[in-house]
Structure to design on (240 residues):
């Protein structure tokens, strides 16, 4: 009898660094199915490094990454996408010279969506983010920051992930626009049971859509809490 996995992503004894300098050492972490987990901490705490490692963009030196409680021997973005993991990168990562339509076409190919399924998959993404249709034929470089972020999120959803990694999606966005972007994703998460790992500096806004919070400092987890426990600014300042 198969048991339901207790985590969707987990690290055990993870060690990651750059140029011989460790960023994460003996790092244990877990993301549970169907939750929104907010990862916060000061600049340089290792948050983005963790996301990049989980998506196979940064090589680990030691330790394990487990998917559905099973060790992943090879971490490579295409394999992880096929396994249901998708990334919204910091800085949006879109090509300014491509139209939104071209970006989505490239995204469908990159995600390995079968040709006969692409029209339906794109239609599904447009139901989640209908505002994409308002600028679908425009070049990404002519869009506002919020519109570009919507394109980045839409591209990540093309693989219909069960786990979405989001790295600083609020950069350059006003709080209301940030919430306008995240609310459809939160609704999708509730409807589909998708897990979300959200790395964010805009803590106040991120806590509004989170189920659990992990606080990092200097490559280590120093606190785990529910959002209500960190609603007081004074408590947050103590952690930073």
């Amino acid at each position: 009898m198969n048991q339901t996995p207790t985590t969707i992503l987990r690290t055990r004894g993870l060690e990651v660094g750059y140029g011989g300098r460790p960023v994460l050492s003996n790092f244990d972490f877990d993301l549970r199915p169907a939750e929104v987990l907010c990862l916060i901490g000061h600049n340089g705490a290792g948050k983005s490094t963790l996301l990049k490692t989980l998506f196979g963009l940064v090589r680990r030196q030691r330790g394990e990454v487990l998917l559905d409680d099973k060790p992943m021997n090879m971490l490579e973005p295409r394999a992880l996408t096929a396994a249901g993991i998708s990334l919204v990168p910091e800085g949006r990562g879109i090509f300014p010279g491509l139209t939104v339509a071209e970006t989505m076409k490239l995204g469908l190919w990159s995600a390995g969506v079968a040709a006969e399924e692409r029209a339906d998959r794109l239609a599904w993404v447009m139901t989640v983010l209908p505002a994409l249709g308002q600028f679908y034929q425009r070049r990404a470089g002519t869009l506002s920051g919020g519109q570009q972020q919507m394109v980045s999120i839409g591209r990540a959803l093309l693989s219909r992930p069960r786990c979405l990694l989001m790295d600083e999606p609020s950069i350059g966005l006003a709080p209301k626009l940030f919430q306008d972007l995240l609310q459809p994703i939160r609704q999708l998460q509730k409807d589909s049971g998708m897990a979300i790992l959200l790395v964010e500096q805009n803590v106040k806004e991120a806590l509004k859509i989170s189920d659990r919070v992990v606080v990092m400092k200097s490559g280590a987890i120093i606190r785990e809490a529910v959002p209500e426990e960190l609603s007081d600014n004074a408590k947050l300042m103590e952690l930073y």
User: Anything to note?
Assistant: Residues 93-160 form one domain. Residues 40 and 201 are 6 Å apart (CA to CA).
